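Review form for a predicted model. The reviewer records the input and the model, then writes brief findings.
Reviewer: anonymous (R2)
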Amino acid sequence: MTAAIRVRGLEKSFGDLRVLRGVDLDVEAGSVVALLGSNGAGKTTAIRILATLTTSTAGTASVAGHDVAADPGAVREAISLTGQFAAVDEVLTGRENLVLVARLRHLRHAGRIADELLDRFSLTDAGSRRAGTYSGGMRRRLDIAMSLIGDPSVVFLDEPTTGLDPEARIEVWDAVRALAASGTTVLLTTQYLDEAEQLADRIAILHEGRIIADGTLAELQRLLPPATVEYVEKRPTLEDVFLAVIGHRPDADTTKADTTKEVA
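Model under review:
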Protein backbone atom coordinates (compact mmCIF):
# COMPACT_ATOMS: atom_id res chain seq x y z
CA MET A 1 0.00 0.00 0.00
CA THR A 2 1.23 3.49 -0.90
CA ALA A 3 0.04 5.81 1.85
CA ALA A 4 -0.88 9.30 0.71
CA ILE A 5 -1.60 10.18 4.35
CA ARG A 6 0.18 8.59 7.31
CA VAL A 7 -0.56 9.53 10.90
CA ARG A 8 1.13 8.09 13.99
CA GLY A 9 0.37 8.91 17.62
CA LEU A 10 -1.20 12.26 16.79
CA GLU A 11 -2.22 14.29 19.83
CA LYS A 12 -3.70 17.74 20.27
CA SER A 13 -4.58 19.57 23.44
CA PHE A 14 -6.11 22.97 24.05
CA GLY A 15 -5.03 23.76 27.58
CA ASP A 16 -6.36 20.94 29.75
CA LEU A 17 -8.68 19.70 27.02
CA ARG A 18 -7.24 16.72 25.14
CA VAL A 19 -8.97 16.58 21.75
CA LEU A 20 -6.78 13.98 20.03
CA ARG A 21 -5.29 11.24 22.18
CA GLY A 22 -2.99 9.27 19.89
CA VAL A 23 -4.50 8.91 16.42
CA ASP A 24 -3.04 6.36 13.97
CA LEU A 25 -4.33 6.41 10.40
CA ASP A 26 -3.21 5.41 6.90
CA VAL A 27 -4.97 6.57 3.72
CA GLU A 28 -4.00 4.73 0.56
CA ALA A 29 -3.27 6.85 -2.50
CA GLY A 30 -6.30 7.14 -4.78
CA SER A 31 -8.77 5.96 -2.13
CA VAL A 32 -11.66 7.60 -0.29
CA VAL A 33 -11.51 7.31 3.49
CA ALA A 34 -14.26 8.59 5.77
CA LEU A 35 -13.35 9.80 9.24
CA LEU A 36 -16.58 9.11 11.08
CA GLY A 37 -17.46 10.55 14.47
CA SER A 38 -19.95 12.53 16.47
CA ASN A 39 -19.66 16.26 17.11
CA GLY A 40 -16.62 17.01 19.26
CA ALA A 41 -14.84 13.76 18.41
CA GLY A 42 -11.85 15.66 16.97
CA LYS A 43 -12.47 15.22 13.23
CA THR A 44 -11.98 18.85 12.22
CA THR A 45 -8.95 19.20 14.50
CA ALA A 46 -7.30 16.24 12.77
CA ILE A 47 -8.02 17.73 9.34
CA ARG A 48 -6.64 21.12 10.37
CA ILE A 49 -3.39 19.51 11.49
CA LEU A 50 -3.04 17.54 8.26
CA ALA A 51 -3.77 20.70 6.25
CA THR A 52 -1.06 22.60 8.22
CA LEU A 53 -3.59 25.06 9.67
CA THR A 54 -2.60 24.14 13.21
CA THR A 55 0.14 22.13 14.86
CA SER A 56 -0.08 18.93 16.86
CA THR A 57 0.93 18.57 20.49
CA ALA A 58 2.61 15.22 19.83
CA GLY A 59 2.92 12.56 17.16
CA THR A 60 3.78 12.71 13.47
CA ALA A 61 1.86 13.09 10.22
CA SER A 62 2.82 13.12 6.56
CA VAL A 63 0.76 14.02 3.49
CA ALA A 64 1.87 13.18 -0.05
CA GLY A 65 5.24 12.16 1.38
CA HIS A 66 5.84 15.46 3.19
CA ASP A 67 5.97 15.92 6.94
CA VAL A 68 3.27 18.41 7.95
CA ALA A 69 5.47 19.95 10.67
CA ALA A 70 8.84 19.95 8.93
CA ASP A 71 7.70 20.81 5.38
CA PRO A 72 4.29 22.53 5.53
CA GLY A 73 4.88 24.45 2.30
CA ALA A 74 5.23 21.26 0.27
CA VAL A 75 2.12 19.85 1.92
CA ARG A 76 0.07 22.92 0.96
CA GLU A 77 1.19 22.59 -2.66
CA ALA A 78 -0.07 18.99 -2.74
CA ILE A 79 -3.45 19.40 -1.05
CA SER A 80 -6.75 21.20 -1.15
CA LEU A 81 -9.18 21.75 1.70
CA THR A 82 -12.93 22.28 1.53
CA GLY A 83 -14.38 23.36 4.86
CA GLN A 84 -17.81 22.85 6.37
CA PHE A 85 -19.28 25.83 4.54
CA ALA A 86 -18.86 26.70 0.86
CA ALA A 87 -16.17 29.36 0.42
CA VAL A 88 -17.46 30.91 -2.80
CA ASP A 89 -17.77 34.60 -3.56
CA GLU A 90 -21.50 35.10 -4.03
CA VAL A 91 -21.06 38.37 -5.96
CA LEU A 92 -18.97 36.69 -8.67
CA THR A 93 -20.34 34.26 -11.22
CA GLY A 94 -19.46 30.60 -10.96
CA ARG A 95 -16.94 30.95 -13.78
CA GLU A 96 -15.41 34.09 -12.24
CA ASN A 97 -14.89 32.23 -8.96
CA LEU A 98 -12.93 29.54 -10.77
CA VAL A 99 -10.92 32.00 -12.86
CA LEU A 100 -10.02 33.97 -9.71
CA VAL A 101 -8.63 30.90 -7.95
CA ALA A 102 -6.68 29.84 -11.05
CA ARG A 103 -5.09 33.28 -11.27
CA LEU A 104 -4.27 33.29 -7.54
CA ARG A 105 -2.43 30.01 -8.18
CA HIS A 106 -0.57 31.71 -11.08
CA LEU A 107 -1.87 29.19 -13.60
CA ARG A 108 -1.96 29.85 -17.32
CA HIS A 109 -5.17 29.57 -19.32
CA ALA A 110 -7.38 30.35 -16.31
CA GLY A 111 -10.48 30.64 -18.49
CA ARG A 112 -9.97 27.22 -20.05
CA ILE A 113 -9.42 25.66 -16.62
CA ALA A 114 -12.66 27.25 -15.40
CA ASP A 115 -14.63 25.99 -18.39
CA GLU A 116 -13.31 22.45 -17.98
CA LEU A 117 -14.29 22.36 -14.31
CA LEU A 118 -17.73 23.81 -14.99
CA ASP A 119 -18.29 21.00 -17.46
CA ARG A 120 -16.88 18.35 -15.13
CA PHE A 121 -19.26 19.34 -12.33
CA SER A 122 -22.30 19.93 -14.57
CA LEU A 123 -22.29 23.69 -13.95
CA THR A 124 -21.74 24.97 -17.49
CA ASP A 125 -25.27 26.32 -17.88
CA ALA A 126 -24.97 28.15 -14.55
CA GLY A 127 -21.43 29.40 -15.11
CA SER A 128 -22.49 32.92 -16.08
CA ARG A 129 -24.83 33.31 -13.10
CA ARG A 130 -23.85 34.90 -9.79
CA ALA A 131 -22.94 32.21 -7.26
CA GLY A 132 -25.33 33.84 -4.82
CA THR A 133 -28.21 32.52 -6.93
CA TYR A 134 -26.99 28.90 -6.73
CA SER A 135 -28.72 26.22 -4.71
CA GLY A 136 -26.86 24.66 -1.78
CA GLY A 137 -25.81 21.65 -3.83
CA MET A 138 -24.60 23.77 -6.74
CA ARG A 139 -22.64 26.00 -4.39
CA ARG A 140 -21.00 22.97 -2.81
CA ARG A 141 -20.12 21.51 -6.22
CA LEU A 142 -18.59 24.84 -7.22
CA ASP A 143 -16.63 24.87 -3.95
CA ILE A 144 -15.24 21.40 -4.66
CA ALA A 145 -14.43 22.41 -8.23
CA MET A 146 -12.49 25.41 -6.91
CA SER A 147 -10.54 23.11 -4.60
CA LEU A 148 -9.34 21.05 -7.58
CA ILE A 149 -7.63 23.91 -9.38
CA GLY A 150 -3.94 23.10 -9.50
CA ASP A 151 -4.58 19.33 -9.54
CA PRO A 152 -3.99 18.54 -5.84
CA SER A 153 -3.17 14.90 -5.16
CA VAL A 154 -4.97 14.93 -1.80
CA VAL A 155 -8.31 16.60 -1.04
CA PHE A 156 -9.72 17.10 2.45
CA LEU A 157 -13.51 17.48 2.69
CA ASP A 158 -14.65 18.53 6.15
CA GLU A 159 -18.32 17.55 6.56
CA PRO A 160 -19.12 18.42 2.91
CA THR A 161 -22.91 17.96 3.17
CA THR A 162 -23.62 19.79 6.42
CA GLY A 163 -26.87 21.75 6.13
CA LEU A 164 -27.79 20.44 2.68
CA ASP A 165 -31.17 19.03 1.68
CA PRO A 166 -31.43 15.40 0.48
CA GLU A 167 -31.20 16.25 -3.23
CA ALA A 168 -28.17 18.51 -2.70
CA ARG A 169 -26.46 15.80 -0.64
CA ILE A 170 -26.75 13.39 -3.56
CA GLU A 171 -25.27 16.02 -5.89
CA VAL A 172 -22.24 16.34 -3.60
CA TRP A 173 -21.94 12.56 -3.31
CA ASP A 174 -21.76 12.37 -7.09
CA ALA A 175 -19.02 15.00 -7.08
CA VAL A 176 -17.00 13.03 -4.52
CA ARG A 177 -17.40 9.87 -6.58
CA ALA A 178 -16.08 11.78 -9.59
CA LEU A 179 -13.01 12.77 -7.55
CA ALA A 180 -12.39 9.14 -6.62
CA ALA A 181 -12.79 8.04 -10.23
CA SER A 182 -10.09 10.51 -11.29
CA GLY A 183 -7.60 8.97 -8.84
CA THR A 184 -7.61 11.79 -6.28
CA THR A 185 -7.04 10.76 -2.66
CA VAL A 186 -9.97 11.95 -0.53
CA LEU A 187 -10.19 12.15 3.25
CA LEU A 188 -13.63 13.30 4.30
CA THR A 189 -15.08 13.82 7.74
CA THR A 190 -18.72 13.18 8.43
CA GLN A 191 -21.16 12.39 11.20
CA TYR A 192 -23.63 10.83 8.77
CA LEU A 193 -23.43 7.04 8.75
CA ASP A 194 -25.07 6.69 5.34
CA GLU A 195 -22.60 9.14 3.82
CA ALA A 196 -19.63 7.09 4.96
CA GLU A 197 -21.34 3.92 3.75
CA GLN A 198 -22.05 5.40 0.30
CA LEU A 199 -18.70 7.04 -0.43
CA ALA A 200 -15.82 5.47 1.44
CA ASP A 201 -13.47 2.65 0.50
CA ARG A 202 -12.49 2.52 4.17
CA ILE A 203 -14.06 3.97 7.30
CA ALA A 204 -12.21 5.09 10.43
CA ILE A 205 -14.30 5.71 13.54
CA LEU A 206 -12.95 8.49 15.75
CA HIS A 207 -14.27 8.48 19.30
CA GLU A 208 -13.04 10.57 22.23
CA GLY A 209 -9.86 11.47 20.38
CA ARG A 210 -8.87 7.96 19.26
CA ILE A 211 -9.46 5.75 16.22
CA ILE A 212 -11.38 2.84 17.73
CA ALA A 213 -12.16 0.99 14.47
CA ASP A 214 -10.74 1.15 10.95
CA GLY A 215 -11.61 -0.97 7.92
CA THR A 216 -13.87 -1.53 4.96
CA LEU A 217 -17.61 -1.60 5.52
CA ALA A 218 -17.57 -5.40 5.29
CA GLU A 219 -14.76 -5.62 7.83
CA LEU A 220 -16.56 -3.36 10.27
CA GLN A 221 -19.79 -5.29 9.84
CA ARG A 222 -17.97 -8.45 10.89
CA LEU A 223 -17.40 -6.87 14.31
CA LEU A 224 -21.08 -7.60 15.04
CA PRO A 225 -22.66 -11.05 15.48
CA PRO A 226 -23.63 -12.92 12.28
CA ALA A 227 -26.84 -11.71 10.64
CA THR A 228 -30.09 -13.63 10.79
CA VAL A 229 -32.79 -13.55 8.15
CA GLU A 230 -36.17 -12.17 9.14
CA TYR A 231 -39.17 -11.06 7.13
CA VAL A 232 -40.09 -7.48 7.87
CA GLU A 233 -42.37 -4.93 6.29
CA LYS A 234 -40.29 -2.26 4.63
CA ARG A 235 -41.89 1.09 4.04
CA PRO A 236 -40.25 3.94 2.13
CA THR A 237 -38.56 6.57 4.26
CA LEU A 238 -39.60 10.19 4.03
CA GLU A 239 -36.38 10.84 2.08
CA ASP A 240 -37.37 8.12 -0.42
CA VAL A 241 -40.79 9.74 -0.83
CA PHE A 242 -39.33 13.23 -1.20
CA LEU A 243 -36.82 12.21 -3.88
CA ALA A 244 -39.41 10.16 -5.77
CA VAL A 245 -41.98 12.97 -5.74
CA ILE A 246 -39.54 15.55 -7.11
CA GLY A 247 -38.43 13.12 -9.78
CA HIS A 248 -34.86 12.56 -8.65
CA ARG A 249 -35.45 8.81 -8.53
CA PRO A 250 -38.04 8.19 -11.24
CA ASP A 251 -37.74 4.44 -10.84
CA ALA A 252 -38.27 4.51 -7.09
CA ASP A 253 -40.90 1.98 -6.00
CA THR A 254 -42.71 3.68 -3.16
CA THR A 255 -45.30 0.93 -2.93
CA LYS A 256 -42.95 -1.90 -1.98
CA ALA A 257 -44.47 -4.05 0.73
CA ASP A 258 -42.92 -7.25 2.10
CA THR A 259 -39.20 -7.84 1.49
CA THR A 260 -36.35 -9.81 2.99
CA LYS A 261 -33.95 -7.91 5.21
CA GLU A 262 -30.84 -9.00 7.08
CA VAL A 263 -30.73 -7.87 10.68
CA ALA A 264 -28.18 -8.59 13.36
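Findings: Residues 250-264 have pLDDT under 50 and may be disordered.
Further findings: The first strand starts at residue 3 and ends at 14.
Recommendation: see findings above.
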